[in-house]
Design brief:
Elements lengths: L3 E7 L4 E4 L18 H11 L3 E5 L4 E6 L3 E14 L2 E3 L3 E5 L4 E17 L2 E2 L26 E5 L9 E4 L10 E5 L8 H9 L2 E3 L7 E5 L14 E2 L4 E3 L7 E3 L6 E2 L3 E5 L4 H5 L6 E2 L1 E3 L2 H17 L2 E4 L6 H6 L12
Parallel strand pairs: 12-21
Antiparallel strand pairs: 1-4, 1-10, 2-3, 3-8, 4-8, 5-6, 5-7, 5-8, 7-11, 9-10, 11-22, 12-19, 13-14, 13-20, 14-17, 15-18, 16-17, 16-19
Length: 332
Amino acid sequence: MSARLLVRAAGPGVTIQDAGRFGHSRFGVTPAGPMDEAAFIAATRAVGADAAIEVSLGGAVFEAEGATLAVAVAGGAFDIRLDGTMLPPAGLFPLEPGARLVMRAGAFGAWCYVAVGAQFDIAKALGSLATHARSGIGPKPLTAGDALPLSDLMPPPHGSHALVAPWLVQDDAPIRVMLGPQDDYFPPGAIATLLSAEWRVGARSDRMAYALEGPRLAHAKGHDIVSDGAAMGAIQVPGSGVPFVLMADRQPTGGYPKIATAIGADLGRLAQLRPGETLRFRAVDWAEAVAARGALKNKMAAGAIVTPLAAELSSEKLLAVNLIGGVVSAGE
């Protein structure tokens, strides 16, 4: 029997993602890809994979068939259990045939990644496995009963391990933004409001955009522009004055002015916010944005520390090897 990963249950928004579908935006095709790139990289690098399953707040249940699989998970602090045994939110472990990997929303975070030490034998669309559900490009969203064929399996690890990665640490510092590219479409008071107000992630938020609840932002030069490219993290303000942060499944172009853009280093933290949670913004210049991105890439290049877990796990032991859950300052 060939190896497969079986989907026993899947909430809304469980999809296959790789790094993204690039080079096609000029044809109206969005990149898609992971909501939290840093967590995606932590999981995929642990097992040498190019793609992973992105699990949303609805959770998912998986089983292996035909072989014991090397599996890595990373992302928000989800409740991860292997045949009832709790595992750390970021970990590497063997998934034996018949064993159940159950993932549910935990203490914080909106997305978690499941990477398998194998290749998904699934047809690519425009050279990518990234799912863009709205357009129907890429693999369809996963549902109960799906069976994902696998090839090129890597040997499974001996026992369960924690992945200790400093870039997965929870951080409630303000999301850093660069003003523009159309900040001149807004009066100074609107920009001041963007940077001083507390914003709440709205219930209408999804992979396309996060709606922000808070004060309305006024326009100075109207709310229509000639459509231009839309980057992940761009904060559009339509005529309603309600800002939207464009996310991984954003449209390729947009005709609303963009008051600011979240910097790349903070996109993962922004993506991990759940509906109802709050955030603030802080303006930075180009030099700080580039330095922050470089610092994050350097941390990821060093890789996660793989720490074996004791056979008998307790909450104290899990906390001892789990860096997720502390709060640090992004300015440090």
